[in-house]
Design a protein that fits this description.
With about 200 residues, the protein is mainly α. It has 8 helices and 2 strands. It has helices at about 15-25, 35-55, 65-75, 85-110, 135-150, 150-160, 165-170, 175-195; strands at about 120, 130-135. A two-stranded antiparallel ribbon has the order 1-2. The chain is globular. The termini are far apart.
Length: about 200
């Protein structure tokens, strides 16, 4: 299904004020607000999906559009969410896409009795080198990190997976940009050690 082309600002992202307006209406119980919001953010959700899918093998059975559509369907269940702003919306969307891809990978592994689903860990964004990590292993590592420090997982989701800027990331947990960078550096090092099989008793 082709979505209408939304207006974008000079940076190529949806107008933040309009997105926030629809999010507030949705939080206030306007069920039609999500329908009005979706065409505006559809291209940005596709950008998130492409970022997730770029490390997958060619011919992956879950395609970018299917990932976006599945995320949109799951967002319907967030009708009681008190959305803060545009950054909060895309942070939740990034988290949903990670969950969808991991669930998909786990189902395929169960059917095949194993197998590997890979996600690229770009050395400029995550843990170093051109190394590819198993998507399920990355999810397990992030879940373990979340038990130690949920905010650091949120930062990883928004920065590495969601592609949000430091400033946008800082808006969601309401911390400074310096804190985001510190969390990002610590989480990156911790995940590297965990995925490499090192000791990860603490942060």
């Amino acid at each position: 299904m082709r979505k209408p082309t939304p207006p974008h600002d000079e940076a190529g992202t949806p107008p933040g004020g309009e997105v926030s307006e629809f999010l507030r209406a949705w939080s206030d119980g306007d069920r039609a607000a999500l329908d009005r919001l979706t065409p505006i953010v559809y291209d940005e959700l596709h950008r998130l999906a492409r970022r997730y899918m770029k490390g997958e093998r060619p011919g992956h059975s879950l395609q970018t559009t299917a990932l976006v559509n599945e995320a949109c369907m799951r967002l319907v269940d967030y009708k009681s969410m008190q959305w803060q702003n545009r950054a909060h919306f895309f942070a939740v969307s990034a988290q949903l896409m990670r969950r969808i891809l991991v669930d998909h990978a786990r189902r395929r592994n169960l059917k095949r009795g194993g197998g590997v689903q890979h996600v690229s860990l770009d050395h400029t964004a995550m843990v170093g080198g051109e190394r590819a990590a198993d998507l399920v292993a990355l999810d397990d590592a992030m879940n373990l990190l979340g038990k130690l420090d949920p905010r650091k997982v949120q930062v990883v989701e928004m920065r590495f997976l969601g592609g949000l800027s430091v400033e946008e990331t800082a808006e969601v947990p309401k911390v400074s940009a310096v804190t985001v960078m510190r969390d990002w550096s610590t989480a990156r090092a911790w995940l590297y050690r965990e995925l490499a099989g090192g000791a990860t008793d603490g942060l």
